[in-house]
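Lab notebook, bench 4. The sequencing result for the construct came back, and we need a structural model before the next group meeting so we can plan mutations. Quick request posted to the team channel:

Model the 3D structure of this chain.
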Amino acid sequence: MPIAYQDQQSTVADTGFQARVEAGEVIVALAVTSVAPTGSPTAPRYQLADRVITQPDFAVTQFCWAIVTRPQLNDITQITDTQINNVISSFWDQVAGALFPAGP
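Done. Here's the predicted structure in token form:
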């Protein structure tokens, strides 16, 4: 069962949760930049990685929402760092595309 909307909002606003997500973002960003680009190094996924490395809180809100809206993570108090990192990794390209849309 998904987390209630009010609990989702409270969790996204929680600075302790934000700090955990920020740490996860940096870990994933470093992983993205450590792999040879399969496309253009200016592709959104690399732009997001560069931004997160230099400004770790850049996409915290977007990734917090991605995490709390996962139906399989139905108990906020039990979300592990591994689950946080897995959600960030799985939504990395989607968030990157939204924040750094490709040109026409």
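The two ends are 40 Å apart (CA to CA).
Will bring this to the meeting.
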